[in-house]
From TrEMBL:
<dbReference type="GO" id="GO:0006396">
    <property type="term" value="P:RNA processing"/>
</dbReference>
<dbReference type="InterPro" id="IPR000504">
    <property type="entry name" value="RRM_dom"/>
</dbReference>
<dbReference type="InterPro" id="IPR012677">
    <property type="entry name" value="Nucleotide-bd_a/b_plait_sf"/>
</dbReference>
<dbReference type="GO" id="GO:0005737">
    <property type="term" value="C:cytoplasm"/>
</dbReference>
<dbReference type="InterPro" id="IPR008111">
    <property type="entry name" value="RNA-bd_8"/>
</dbReference>
<dbReference type="GO" id="GO:0005634">
    <property type="term" value="C:nucleus"/>
</dbReference>
<dbReference type="GO" id="GO:0003723">
    <property type="term" value="F:RNA binding"/>
</dbReference>
<keyword id="KW-0694">RNA-binding</keyword>
<dbReference type="InterPro" id="IPR035979">
    <property type="entry name" value="RBD_domain_sf"/>
</dbReference>
<dbReference type="Pfam" id="PF00076">
    <property type="entry name" value="RRM_1"/>
</dbReference>
<feature type="domain" description="RRM">
    <location>
        <begin position="19"/>
        <end position="105"/>
    </location>
</feature>
<protein>
    <recommendedName>
        <fullName>RRM domain-containing protein</fullName>
    </recommendedName>
</protein>
Amino acid sequence: MDGNDGGDGPVPARSVEGWVLFVSGLHAEATEEDLVDAGGAFGPVARASVVLDRRTGYAKGYGLLAFASWAAAAAARGGLAKDMGGAVSAEWAFLGGGGGGKRRR
């Protein structure tokens, strides 16, 4: 799958590291290991990072989770909230064009 769902809006775009999700609503004591564990239920995690507050050392409440495959990232996007207690949400970190323009040949 290439990430294009056939809709008219923006579609997920692949980054250099793979299909990346922006994960928000993380607990202040969440770690990268927690993200890897949660994301690993949907497929191999290429990279995980939790953004930390420099002053306190605790998580700011968001991070990034990268998967090599679109299918794993799409499954995690829909399932992370269930696995991490419902307060967490995951959205595509990078979006491409919506298909409104002409294609180059």
